[in-house]
Amino acid sequence: TPAPVARRLSGNNSAPDFSPDDDEIVYQVGLPGTGLDLVFQSLQGVGERVIHPKLQFLSRPRYDPLGSAVVVHGTSADGIQGIFRVDKETGEVAALVSNPSTDLTNPAWTRDGRKLFFERDDRAVWMLDRQTKQTSEVYAFSERADNFTSAPSSDGLQVAVVHGASLSIVDVATHTPQEIV
């Protein structure tokens, strides 16, 4: 019988993600004006941990395949937009990519944890190489779109991109899009 997994603040939780070992999920909770928390919920029994990272805002927690952390997009205590690593035990926050004037959203790791893809200003997909700590643009549209989102393949060789009413697959190595719809 289906049963709810997330019990905390029902109706005010969102953006779940499975841990790499499928033993728990992380999701965000928050009521307007109360800040946002991360909840780590065991799927193997009863138990949850709540972390309140020192961020003004956070969204879309995604497990880091290489360690005991998640990444989120959000705003730091000093107002900087970015993609942040949050230690799932301590709640310590570290910026992976930041920019005071640019919206950085929708972080997604490759399965091996070597590359982190993210979106910039509702019009571009970027990638962070974990080893070199260098960022590079994967593909950009000339204008923003209200309906913009992306998802890398698990190996990081391609990225599916929705821009407005179109869906494209972008080859990461050549930056070449192929419009699907």
Describe the overall structure.
- Helices cover 0% and strands 54% of the residues.
- By secondary structure, the chain is mainly β.
- The strands form four sheets. A four-stranded antiparallel beta sheet has the order 1-2-3-4, with no helix packed on it. It has a four-stranded antiparallel beta sheet with strand order 5-6-7-8, with no helix packed on it. It has a four-stranded antiparallel beta sheet with strand order 9-10-11-12, with no helix packed on it.
- The N and C termini lie far apart (37 Å).
Protein traits:
about 180 residues; mainly beta; 4-stranded antiparallel beta sheet
Provide a short characterization of the protein structure.
The protein has 181 residues and is an all-beta fold. It has no helices and 16 strands.
